[in-house]
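Researcher: I'm preparing a figure for a lab meeting and need a structural model of a single chain. I don't have an experimental structure, so a prediction will have to do for now. The sequence is pasted below. Please return the structure as tokens so I can convert it later.
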Amino acid sequence: MDFSTFVAGKLPDILKLTEHALIVAGGKGTRIKSVLPKQFIELAGKPILLHTLEAFIRYSPTIRIVLVLPEDDFDIWRDISKKFEFNYPVTLQKGGETRFQSVKNGLQNIAEGLVAIHDGVRPLVSEDIIGASFRLAAIHKCAIAAVRLKESIRMTDQDNTKAVDRSRFRLIQTPQTFLVDLIKNAYQQKEDNSFTDDASVAERAGNIISLFEGSYENIKITTQEDLIVAKALMEGRG
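Model: Understood. Here is the structure written out token by token.
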């Protein structure tokens, strides 16, 4: 298929699968030095999590959203929904002790189609990135957002360091989008500490991981510095 077809957002009917977003928001705000969980901190007048959800709704007003939160945060989310008049239908799911368990719990609410798994604290994801992830996953079974490294890197051990060719490496982001059957099957395997994201889970299950170009603006907010950068980027977008 011609790549221009993807850019234009046009898909053959056979590839028009049901699109889901699984938003994982289980942060505690430790590194950002906040008593309030970081996904609920306000950024440009709204909680970070609300910006993230609205990005997916802007992409498609019919997308099916599963929101995974710690059970203790359910009331906070309901208060936010009421305060900001957020009435979009969202399936609320109790998370687990780890991200692996939280994603696995969220996937129980999704039967078929495609699912974009996304960090609740990546509010600057664009509609173009979301759309590309779905279109490419429909072809390649998975599509993982990633960006090239901008700076030099070195590999270290206890005694030495060694220069490494940065062109061979990528920084991995979300969304990480999959055929639902593929990622649900991958999450049936035993949890392992080496699973750092959904792609690593899918890869361990024997699947080939396909990357696509993400965005340097699609930052994950984990520190106070990230908040400052995110605010500046949002102001730049107007």
